[in-house]
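Hi F.,

I've been meaning to write this up properly since the lab meeting, where we talked about keeping a consistent format for the predictions we share between groups. The idea is simple: the sequence comes first, exactly as it goes in, then the structure tokens exactly as they come out, then a line or two of notes. No screenshots and no reformatting. I'm using this chain as the first example so we have something concrete to point to.
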Amino acid sequence: MNNKYYKTDVEGLMKDPESGAVLNVDNNKLEAYKKQKSTFKMNMENNARITKVEKDLSEIKEMLSQLLKRS
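Output, unedited:
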């Protein structure tokens, strides 16, 4: 396999002449993408937890309200 890649018009991208694949060779952009993806995933998980806590709190308030109505 020929390991010589050709430059493209886009900085950080190279082309493999053998397969025609376009490769990202910019490690800084890759790390930034991974960090962004990780942050997004963490935010989604936190939003799901907050939604669950809000739902649980709402249920607790409803139960307390029903208990107070009985007395």
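Notes:
The CA atoms of residues 4 and 70 lie 80 Å apart.
The chain is about 60% helix and 10% strand.

If this format works for you, I'll send the rest the same way.

G.
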